[in-house]
Protein 1
Amino acid sequence: MWRIEDSAELYGISCWGSGYFGISKNGNLTIATRRDGSHQIEIIDIVRKLNEMNLKPPFLLRFPQLLHERLKDMHSAFVHSINEFDYGGAYRSAFPVKVNQRREVIEGLLHPGLPLIFGLEVGSKPELLLAIPYQAQYDVHLVCNGCKDDAYITLALKTIKFNKNTIIVIDDVSEAKLIIDTAKELNVIPQIGIRTKLYSKGSGKWESSGGDNSKFGLNTTEILEVIKTLENNRMLSSLNMLHFHIGSQVTAVSHIQKAVKEAARIYAKLQRVGANIQYFNIGGGLGVNYDSSKTSSFSGTNYTLQEYANNVVSTLKSICDEENAPYPTIISESGRAIAAHHSMLIINISGRKNVKQYGEVTVNEKDSSIVHELHDCYRKINIRNYEECYHDAVYLKEKLINLFNLGKLGLEEKSKGETLFWKICQCVTSFASEEGNTSEQIQKLEKHLSNKYLGNFSIFQSIPDSWAINQLFPVLPIHRLNEKPTYKGTIVDLTCDSDGEINQFIDKTHTKELLELHQLNDEPYYLAITLIGAYQDTMGDCHNLFGTVNEVHIAQKNNDNWYITHIIPADTTANVLNNMKYETAGLLKTLNKALEREQTTETENFIKLYEKELGKPTYLHNCKACALQR
């Protein structure tokens, strides 16, 4: 009997789900907007409701309440650490806008009933322009990083004239004089931060972005030069933040501890020379468990949120006590950890590709000896000799191809030989599974024989990091989780690009190349790609002119009931073409002119069909060919 607990273990939900995801007794994937898992929403219910509303997949489901919950979790973890270690300072959270610039996300975080947010961190002038109105409305801080020109600094300083809190972080020595001169011209007292370039580095995929070769930040000599410049202009009192960042998705907690220790020493020494630093900004880096290994793999972390907070607070307190320095307010910019969980992509599987299914082969005396040898190999294979038979079959197949290339075999004989070879391979994987053989040879063969499930989506549009940096995202069915999956395969998208494939999946303790899925039938089959709330929304492209998907915002009441708060329709083909500078009116005009000599009913109907399809979403709707692949 297959249980929902088996599916939970198979797909690693207990680790990456972080208490928000689960499986209902009906075998459906659930999400809860509270970590305790109470009041769960069955995702399949949302999909069915959307189908009733005549909306078609793929769907991007967004749960803004999870943004609030993640902020609360982070705040609670640091408050617990502050109390446990008797730390005399406070903790606040800033959201780095680059992680997700979508209006729905920013406004969700700045909800007036959620006063936990310290402010927004911006890394460019366009992001500053985005953030300034929110600063004016909600009175939050702005932390200004990134490359800065005169206009950037002028805008940031002018917000101070309106009694707003804006901290300009110096990333380059040349910025110090520009900030000072502009502040004098505007007659404002600036708030200044220094981004330090630590020797300590992060761990994982972004390890190289930290350390001595970091793109941003000041080394010790440059920090002292900035301090001297501020002193000479009587503005040292304006320095109120020390900032550092050792890279995104830090996988090992020891690297966090080392970085905090080094930065804390710098903070204490700056206090001694007269700087009145109030904020100790540890930047981002808090990792998300995308896999189920609970190790420092590229897609995981070997620590919990509470361990992270404990290491930051205890290390900083220890150094402050040694140096007799005041306890600063700790600021973190853990955008990935805040945003990742709140959205998921729901795709429907349209069919299977490259499925090797062969009937029986009839061999007669006219067939070549090589065909007979392969047939004999197929007849004698069993659980005791399957590996030996496989090696023989590989040799015989090579011989078969050589004979065909020399003109000594016909197409029918080649077909028989190839069919027998693949039937032997299927027997090999079956016997290996029965015996528990997971050797590298068997795994390679299993992958070669696997299905390719055609998903109705574009990797490049919806989960670009999967393609660009091999980011692992948890993928699993949203229903039938009380049934044992009997097939294995990879997920391919609609693009005509060989990179449009997901071939890394979560296993119980590590990653694997094949995903366990169910037999397709006449009913729709849906998969969820989860934890995509960080970076994916604004980095996607229109490869093959696939546009955005239908986006749906869901809110949960204080029970299992939920409701739709907002729907953003998918891009139509016309939308995407307009973005590519094709005016649809111009396309229609060109088509009409080209076909004006053939004014028939068929021509008119074709133009009407063309115009109708321009107004539809870019993804598959009804695909009869796909249905045949099931």
Note: The chain has a mean pLDDT of 92.
Protein 2
Amino acid sequence: MDRKRYPPIADYALIGDCHSAALVSRSGSIDWCCLPRFDSTSCFGRLLDWKSGGYFEVAPRARCTVRREYLEGSLILATTFTSGAAEARLIDFFAMREGGRIHPRRELVRIIEGVRGRMDLSIRIVPRFDFGEVRPWIRRNGHSAFIAAGGNTGLLMFGEAALEPDDAHSLRADVRVASGERVHLALQFIAPEDLHTASVRAEDRIHLAAHYEETLRWWREWASRLVYPESAGAAVVRSAIVLKALTYAPTGAIIAAPTTSLPEQAGGPRNWDYRFSWIRDSVFTVHALSALGLEAEAEGFRRFIQRSAAGNAEDLQVLYAVDGRRRMVEIELEQLEGWRGSRPVRIGNGAARQYQADMFGLVLELSWRWSERGRPEAEEYWPFLKGTVEAAIAKWRLPDRGIWEVRSRPRHFVHSKVMCWAAVNRGIALAERYALPAPLGRWRRVRAEIRRVIESRGVDRARGNFVESFGSTDVDAALLLIPTVEFVSYDDERMLRTTEAIHRDLRKSGLILRYRTEDGLPRGEGVFLACTFWLAECLAHQGRREEARALFERAGACANDLGLFAEEFAPRTKQLLGNFPQGLTHLAHISAALALNGSPASAEGTPVQREEGKRPNRDRAGAPGRSL
């Protein structure tokens, strides 16, 4: 295996339509795409197996320099190739439209545009379905139009290039573009029941240009609703757009990342499927988007959680499929070599069956923050929340796998205990605020007991800081989240010492590790970028703004040239690691930016107001936007 064939993770860009997503390399190749949903099998998967995964490439035939950008306020990618006097631009996007939440176009569009001179480019479409296992049958469907079919997947491929079969399972074309010329290409997903009736009409080709304008308008109208401190800058807008792109529009679920098995350690086994909706990541995302004025997304996820748990707190689990499905059996795909030999490649995620105690507190925290925005809880939702409090009370004494989903023995993680306390505390607050029925006397006694145990067993008496788990003297970065649920204030003496301990014990090359303790897997991973932003946020709230700003900028510099973050970063090799782009990192980036720029939203859950220095993000689209 030649590992050099695999581009660095940072070489990729995200495009998507809030149903599915694709990754586009700097060289113009779509090396990852799952249709029709984020968690579907791949139709292009060269990211995980260079030989058999499949790809869709538009590449200059001459050696070129490359620069790329997202069009302002959008998820439309523009890659510019320059070779001497010739220059061409490749525009990539998934088509968006009003009403796309229920009726998406499921259309990926690529536009080759001549900028100056003349440039020759080659087009290769090599679909491989079911993670590379199925080489689809490709048949002609009119002039320069083809259908690829195999298993339960079908693709309709057409455009203005003269596509022809390269072999029985792939297509190719060569094009030359001069200044001002455009060549449109499109790929549409076809449901199995439509395979025999699908066809390309003349107007379909004409409409591709209109779909570009419509998509640009859609994204800019959505982005115009953002409210943020002007000093926070455009990077906050980019992170918000990424989080929106990771939202599954039909249900409101928010996925952790659009990829599976990009490694936390190159060549190692820490490879997981992140194409699902974690309660934890999603609640953090809702906080970040709500702080930017985007409340429709918050309400959508709240409904998703209630529906997925069937209104029964006992049925809560850590993560769900985007449609609320509960079973995500973890499977190893032995036939795939993995990104740069990082095996095993996994689909599904065994963490779905883990007990992670923080989920109870997260659900109640979400409802409390919602009420803080002046949105009272509906009475019919209270039985579910009340049951969640009772579940936390019943289970808080049990060890769990914690926020990091360790695959070693369960432990009494301090962060998990704090989140059980938060479930009871927020339950009491909601019951009192809205006069909802609850056994408040018993709840108050349990709340006091949980606090007493945490303060006696979860604090290092010698150093005066919180610890990772009962009986340990180590710290983990999850402790930085304790003040967000008001268990202690940011300037509590124990929290000040905890921040210092994390800064001292988990620092690596100026960034922050999650932890240093055993977790049931071989050692070795990068620094965790979300944790670095958490520390920056903590320092900002403690008044150490210069240190916070330096740490924030150091972590921000780990993004790729498009402002996209992975889960981790390897300081020695300067490489992004882990699934990409990672929602948790982007939302931590937003929260830290707001803390550094004077917004109270990250600390107290209060909305950012449109006051002096805090403005909506308006651009050429101008008008307020809409959500899917």
Note: Confidence is low (pLDDT under 50) at residues 600-628.
Protein 3
Amino acid sequence: MKKIGISIVAIMLFISVCNSTSGQNKDMSNPFFNEYKTPFQVPPFNEIKLEHFLPAIEAGISEQQTEIKSITDNKEEPTFENTILAFDQSGELLNKASIFSNLNSANTNDQMQALAREITPKMSAHRDNINLNKELFKRVKTVYDKRNNLNLNHEQLRAVEKYYQDFERNGANLPDEKQAELRKLNEELSMLSLKFGENILAETNKTFRLVIDQKADLKGLPEDVITAAADQAKKDKMEGKWVFTLQKPSMIPFLQYAENRSLREKIYRGYISRGNNNNTNDNKEIIAKMVTLRDQRAKLLGFANHAAYTVDINMAKTPENIDNFLMKLWNPAIERAKKERDDMQALINAEGGKFKLEMWDWWFYAEKVRKAKYDLDEAQLKPYFKLDNVVDGMIYVANKLYGIKFIRRTDLPVYNEEVRTYEVQEADGRHIGVFYMDFHPRSGKNAGAWCNSFRTQAYKDGKKITPVVSIVCNFTRPSGGAPALLSFDEVKTLFHESGHAFHSLFTDGPYRRTSRSVPRDFVELPSQIMENWASEPEVLRVYAKHYQTGKVIPDALIAKLEKSAQFNQGFETVEYLAASFLDMDWHSKTFDGNVEAFEKTSMDKIGLINEIEPRYRSSYFSHIFSGGYSAGYYVYIWAAVLDADAFDAFKQSGNIFNPELAARFRTLLAKSGSDEGMVVYKNFRGQEPSIEPLLRRRGLK
């Protein structure tokens, strides 16, 4: 289950009007004001400067204002073409300039963050100016009311209905005084969300360092982890020492292998305390404000709470359905986690340890149990997971499933020198899109992994506009002369985010509003299903090759990996579900004003054991407070039911690359926005999904 995040791939919809410059007298040296001359018209990152963004955004707002006005001033009877289609195709310049938000997540600095604080309220205001435009809504409503008599095709009808639903959900039917209140709520929430993310970036990448100057404190750590820590120390101007950070490629191996228990506790507490240190980056007050304002907004819009508002357009439909679904998984998962805890405590006792297992011990003793039960540890696997080879493995799967080709490009501008670029083609050489890959941590990059778009698929004047997509990760860096060697979790993350990218690359819809527009609890299906192929023996033998000898991973090691597939699944499922329950509570329960007390009550209610923390504590829960997943973190496990059921179809067919199923799944990706999520899924599968494959996969049945 990978964040983000995300990640996050989102189409910027409802870009609106605000008081800004007229857009006249444009500085034509600004790349956004010209047609890109780059291959495939990708953004010319080498030419775009920080000072180009604000003028382009303001001019884009002004241009869309004119476009909207031409719709509302039209004296002709509202039709699909002169209202819905015209609106759908508006805002082209602003869409170009919206790459700013992607860069602010992946490659930011102090100046860019300051600019984000200036841009964010403008964007909030212009979204509201469109959503609350009475004349525009009147025309949309006219088309909506007579939609069944206009001889619209299915795609047109869906676009009409979705736009009307958007206006309703964003307050178009509210009286003037309530709309004014809504505007204030939206602006304040947008700024709070931005600040939350800035605080976590600082807390993760700048505030904490575990500095070790005694070699004895490194006992138990693999050599590649020690070398990476020495490299980090050099970077931090502490040569001769070893530095560990809160980035997962640094922190997780320390928790897995470091024998110094007090230092494990120190780095773990540093991680779970992010945003809760009563300093300038503290997020507790932001959380309190956000959940209060979200609740107010939901009630203003006619919903019982923010969770009810959010889930209303998802596959789950109601918070009650989500709670019931999560609890079906919680009961077997918590029992499994308790058994895992007891196994580790028994190991501690057998070794003569005079202490009770604590949360910072879990990774260390879980690794010992895995070694004892399966004769397997991460250090055995990593030499076979060279980053370049894993990328080749992902490409191999994509080619076998869909026949597509990846052509490495070195002539495309990038926003950071570490970014790789590929052209993606059909088997016959037809261009599909461009794929950027950004793999390693740096100080200006948010934690986690996500996928986004620099250009989304669209049609203009009958011609298809091809997508430009990007995956952003935080994988282990090369160190000590060795290439980047990934953990198996990182391997699955690469396949996961690439699945999001394929969704965007294959999307083929006629309208921006419905192209790739799927419910939040559907969006992780295309990503999570890709993880299944990463661990298939047939695929492992293609990409898992020792970085020094080139030898293919031995069958014996594959067998160990398969046997250990359900290892620690109680822990992994429980920590995830705990965060999902916490998210739903934040957005459906009454908040008493104390963030830490609220969180404790939420976790006590479900019976979370002391040895496990929720995957995200509230103060650094970026998914829900700065990442667009509020009342939606549950979607990963909801989509896991879909992906396990979908992959089960491949397995049951006897061919994990079954061409008929692959073609149907590609159609699902291409046409995912053309209907409701369950309809689209059933078109692929022929039936509703079963939860049984997921329970089997996790060993919960």
Note: The radius of gyration is 25 Å.
Protein 4
Amino acid sequence: MKSLRFKSAIMAAAMFVVFVGNQLSAGGGSQSGTSSAPAASSVAGKSIVRVGIQFDPGTLTPFTARNAGMVATYRSLYEYLIDRDTFGGEMVGCLMKSWKQVDNVTYQITLYDYIVDSAGNKMKASDIKFSYDTAIASGTQPKLSVIDTVSVVDQYTAAFKFKSPLALGDLEAVWSEIPVITEAAYKASPDKMATIPISTHAYKVTEVSAGSKIVLQKTGKYWQTDTSKMPLAAKSNVDTIEFHIIREAAQLVIALETGAIDITANIGNARQVSRFQPGGNLANNFTVYNYMNNPCYVLLFNCAKGNVFADNGALRQAVAYAIDTKGIVDGVFGGNAVALKAVGSSKYGDYIKAWDSKPYYEYDLAKAKSLMSQAGYPNGGLKLKLLVTNSEAIVNMATIIQGYLSQIGITAEIVPYEAAMFKSLQNDPTAYDICIDTYASTDYVVNIWKLSMDSRNYNGRTVNFITDSKLQSQIEQSSTIQGHTAANIDALSTYLNDNMYIYGLAVDLGFVVSNKRVTGILLDSRNSVIPASCSYDFSK
């Protein structure tokens, strides 16, 4: 039986500061901003934090398809069997005390035997079965499709039987995807908890103003009193949490300035954020935290039979050497990005730190021209179609790449489409020669490679028409639970790099902006703020 207890309070404190490597920087400034009424405060001995979010959840019911508003709020409303204190890190028990593998498709999990929800209902294994059966029956939870049955073993033990042996990440996804609630509370709710959820969380919803505000109050009766057994997301560092739904990013900026909110992760405009960063006119009163976003920008080579890149590794490498990814970081993102050193970023739990110090097709025009000669194009003269979505960032990236390629005699025609048409054309081997795409995962860099390079997803070839049995063997090996080792991951990354089927360009940074009362942040795997687990100094 595998215990899921958190390692130690000392480690918890350290990881809080640099959760998932997401808090990359935090800075002050030189001039004072304006603030009419401080938001995070202590009123009658009760501390309050106000969080600005851009999207309305619409409903708070636990078993429905997730939207952006739900993603921003649900970790404050419900609890799950497990959490993960680092991005792509090991499972940390929340409701689950321990687990064991029974056979190649069956896992037993044991709950703590003293879990009580905010209505006083004691949680048992039958509630796990009820929660998962209800979620599966809703038809809105695709990650649960791997489950065959969930059954009750005894009062506090349940068994998950899967349809086949699990792939890497499946177990964590199943156990962290669905809120677990008591059947009694759900059946007592007149609207299936659409407005007032009843969960085991340390907070309960006390007010919902549709499209405007959600208020949560700490109950003071949280079932888990042993802090060494709490995942970071289970902390309760503030008495009242208010989510304020503010749809426009510009209005979020105003709300921060005026003190209507304390913190938001929804200001995506680097120009707007700059006002809060060192040197900005609001920097003295605010802190900006930078974190790596999940999606990685990559360049894909069309390797379909008959294309210029098929069976021409030298040409693919020439293109890679001709592109200055640092130029993309500065030119597209204004420095608010990181040039990649692999197909995936250091944010992911299985990323190998040594990749950062290894050469990865650093800009080298002379080498690019030499490779063009080896590829059969000593004088250039090559014309390519560069397929992209019509997003501003990607079109700007394509324009910069177009300029770099012109230096080695390649003329790239940029062909932009809206997202749905882009995906359709990506399946047409005659529609493009190179394309810019994004790939992301909520845990492992290997899963980025699976999304793009696993032939099981594309009728026997990769997304860019490659048929490579060695690549496929390495993908399948590295994406199993047993084969997910550092050696296998490194070997697969090296193979991808050597063959240059896909080139990692950059990952941009996201921003969390807060006033000075917020002294540390915690983000979930989708980069939403978990306000209860942030740290505060309400004396400021």
Note: Confidence is low (pLDDT under 50) at residues 5-38.
